[in-house]
Amino acid sequence: MPNIKTVLVTGQNGQLGQSLKSLVSSYPQYQFTFTTRDELDLACSQSINNYFEQNKFDLIINCAAYTAVDKAEEQQEIADAINHLAVKQLAEITQKNNSILIHISTDYVFDGTSFKPYIENDPINPQNIYGSTKLKGEQAIQKTACNAIIIRTSWVYSEYGNNFVKTMLRLGADRDQLNVIFDQIGSPTYAADLATSILTITDSLNNNQSDFQHDKVALYHFSNEGVCSWYDFAKAIFEQSNTQCEVFPIETKDYPTPAKRPQYSLLNKAKIKQQYQLIIPYWKDSLKVCLNKLQ
Which is the catalytic residue, given 130, 160, 190, 231? Predict the structure, then answer.
């Protein structure tokens, strides 16, 4: 196992990539490289080959993904290229270079029919193209058996890019009332909290690398603490931002979308908390931090 000195972060312009970039000055012991699609196009296997012929890293943090859930139903090929085939290639490169891969996956690998928070080895059964391509990416890593950590997360938002929080703030400023789904249950994830945990894990791997003694690929769940529906989330956004917009609960069937979403996708985080001694903030506390930055 390498001593981690050089770290590549893919998906520089995404929510998690930007959140990591805002934190890395506190980690001067690592040399971070952030890439966009221009330098490293994960939709193109030749671009990946060319990039890694020129560049080697001790750790790859793969934040890049095709995340347009509804568009993925039509754009299956590009979703599969980025979420599955590119991940397979990154895993093979990691194996060949004896480096480490941290890969971000999703709660959408589950079908949402559970009634208790999902643990890592619960049965997987994605209900849409996005979820199935992300699952294929996970399985490709498992098959390659490189040194890897897969972190499934849910409902990611931040002060960057497009996300539910920013959409609600925009719509709430224009409208007196909104209808929001109340029968899909999960937990939001503030990208800065996930980024902080990834950097904590990086330090831990560097110090003892215990994660790979039993299993080459370690699987974890991460989101903020607590549970809510999208309706609860919207209500909290408006309350904390003093936005005068009334929210009404509706059922999923009243808001049809091209991609089916899991109705219950709460993630059990006991494993990652125990392994890395993480203290994960409650979702409403992290929302407050994000809204303060946005305002």
Answer: 130
